[in-house]
Amino acid sequence: MPNSYALMDCNNFYASCERAFRPELVGRPVVVLSNNDGCVIARSDEAKGVGVPMGAPYFKCRSMLERHGVAVFSSNYALYGDMSARVMRVLSRFCPGVEVYSIDEAFCDLTGVPGGAEAFGRRLRATVQAWTGIPVSVGIGPTKTLAKLANRFAKKQARCRGVFDFGTSPAPDRVLEWTGIGDIWGIGPRHAKRLRKMGVDNALKFRGLKRDWVQKKMTVAGLHTLLELRGLPCLGLTDGPASKKTIVSSRSFGHPVTRLEDILEATAKYTTRAAEKLRRQRSVTSNLLISLETNTFKLGQPQYSNALSVPLAVATAHTPTLIRAATSGMERIFRDGYQYKKCGIMLSGLEPERGRWLNLLALPPAHRPDDRPLMQAVDSLNSRWGRDTVSFAASGVKQGWKMKREMRSPRYTTVWKEILTVTAG
Fold it and tell me: What is the mean pLDDT of the chain?
């Protein structure tokens, strides 16, 4: 039986999450801004239609957004992450195999599903929208690359009504001809530029290239893309996302920060976030990289940036241990007299929790009797009752350095006091 893969992609995901709880925004242009309300990072189709450019600084396009009646939101990643998890749970419930590819995309194995892949894809699309309020597009193909290509076709061509099966298409070559060389999954800008100079400007022409030439010029990754376009599967579904090799937690402050106390609070907060991600993938870290910088775009002000690597004697995911290491490193690189814009932490040297290198002179912190249950209890409470239900005192209480989110929508699904209120009148 031939393979049948589907790529499920949420349409305008961030904007759709905002609309799921604000139905009056359907048909109205919506944009979402980056951290600190800096620039546009997501647009609804209506916002694209009135000419809102992607990546535009908010302060430059603010008057234009107001003129067109665009609804503007600060980024609300707690809401987006939870909505993504709900969509993925729906897919996992009905599909034989699911690989979460990103926050708004997942590959599904539809091989042998009853009624055919296209009919199954349409039912799946309707179910996701009915259960979560998120509209999705579904592309189906015999390989993951063709499924990705089919998804783009389904999204761009209204006659597909959100679902396109490349395997049953009456004119598959015309779909390949319609797909630009830079829009093929696996072909980056550098290779796309070189191929265009050779006259290879669409997927159909790329599929006709000689196999040896592609392998020589584009390595085995390019060869896999070529073979997948020819319908030969080279990429299978993975059981789950690969563990990260590094974990970064870094944010810009809501305003310039000058006090060491505020910098240390932010460092502790970002370390706590990184440690949560570390425990979630069941890893431990043996090294922290602490960084601090001023705003280089502010002319006429003294500038300073620095970073420091802090090795750990024994790899750990114990938050208090990581906070102590991070704040001690930050104290060493902090200098008075500067207006700081950003600090961050990167965890590296990640190892599996059950396969780490040990030290003859020191036990892993998590092996102390009370530490491991404590971290499990903290994670469990924050998962059950919402982020920061339990937090570390080193992170501060007021946190006046936090980034600006003046237009953030409520965290409807993760914070009890912000849950949606419905009244009948």
Answer: 89
3-state secondary structure the chain: CCCCEEEEEECCHHHHHHHHCCHHHCCCCEEEECHHHCEEEEECHHHHHCCCCCCCEHHHHHHHHHHCCCEEEECCHHHHHHHHHHHHHHHHHHCCEEEEEECCEEEEECCCCCCCHHHHHHHHHHHHHHHHCCCEEEEEECCHHHHHHHHHHHHHCHHHCCEEEHHHCCCHHHHHHHCEHHHCCCCCHHHHHHHHHCCCCEHHHHHCCCHHHHHHHHHHHHHHHHHHHCCCCCCCCCCCCCCCCCEEEEEEEEEEECCHHHHHHHHHHHHHHHHHHHHHCCEEEEEEEEEEEECCCCCCCCCCEEEEEEEEEEEECCHHHHHHHHHHHHHHHCCCCCCEEEEEEEEECCEECCCCCCECCECCHHHCCCHHHHHHHHHHHHHHHCCCCCCCHHHCCCCCCCCCCCCCCCCCCCCHHHCCCCCCC
Report yes or no: 418 and 412 within 8 Å, Cβ to Cβ.
yes
Statement: residue 365 has pLDDT above 60: no
Q: What is the pLDDT of residue 372?
A: 77
Q: Which amino acid is at 53?
A: P
Helix axes 211-229, 189-197, angle to 10 degrees: 120
Beta-sheet pairing, 30-33 with 71-74? parallel
Q: Tell me the C-alpha distance between 75 and 89, whole Å.
A: 23
pLDDT digit string, tens, across residues 197-255: 999 999 999 999 999 999 999 989 999 999 999 999 998 887 555 667 889 998 888 78
For residue 294 the two structure tokens come to: 């001023």
d(CA 127, CA 90): 8
Give the β-pairing of 5-10 and 351-352.
Answer: unpaired
β pairing state of 40-43 and 247-257 = unpaired
Q: Cβ of 333: how many Cβ atoms within 10 Å?
A: 16
What pLDDT is recorded for position 77? Answer: 87
The vertex-124 CA angle with 137 and 41, nearest 5°, equals: 35
